[in-house]
Amino acid sequence: MKMILAMIRIAKMAETKIALSDVGLPSFTAMPVLGRGKGNGDLEKAESKIPELKEFISEMPRLKSKRMITLVVTDDKKDLAIETIIKANQTGKSGDGRIFVIPAMDSVRVRTGETGDITLD
């Protein structure tokens, strides 16, 4: 069992939701998050147009609004989930997102008390 955390662009949320549902993975949680990668893509573009911009860097927002989606899948569906998220979100530009895969020890369906992979269906 794997937990997949994906940080994606807000504008790609609907496309991601449809893509996951189309491959049989409709269950996930999404939440708004703020974050950044190591690059300064937008800042570098702006500086090339306005060289004096550097003195205002501290006033610029440093965190970008993103969506974090979380889904837990059986081991055999891990690659499908990752490929689907990549396909729905890849533009080839900085800021496409990041996917983290974490081992999930167990899952419990609160309503019935069932545990294990059966709770993921």
Automatic annotation (TrEMBL):
A GO biological process held by the record: regulation of nitrogen utilization
SMART domains found in the cross-reference section: P-II (SM00938)
Single Gene Ontology MF annotation: enzyme regulator activity
InterPro entries referenced in this protein's UniProt entry, alphabetically: N-reg_PII, N-reg_PII-like_a/b, N-reg_PII/ATP_PRibTrfase_C
Gene Ontology annotations for the cellular component aspect, listed alphabetically: cytosol
Listed Pfam families: P-II (PF00543)
Name the record gives this protein: Nitrogen fixation nifHD2 region GlnB-like protein 2
Lineage of origin: Bacteria, Pseudomonadati, Bacteroidota, Bacteroidia, Bacteroidales
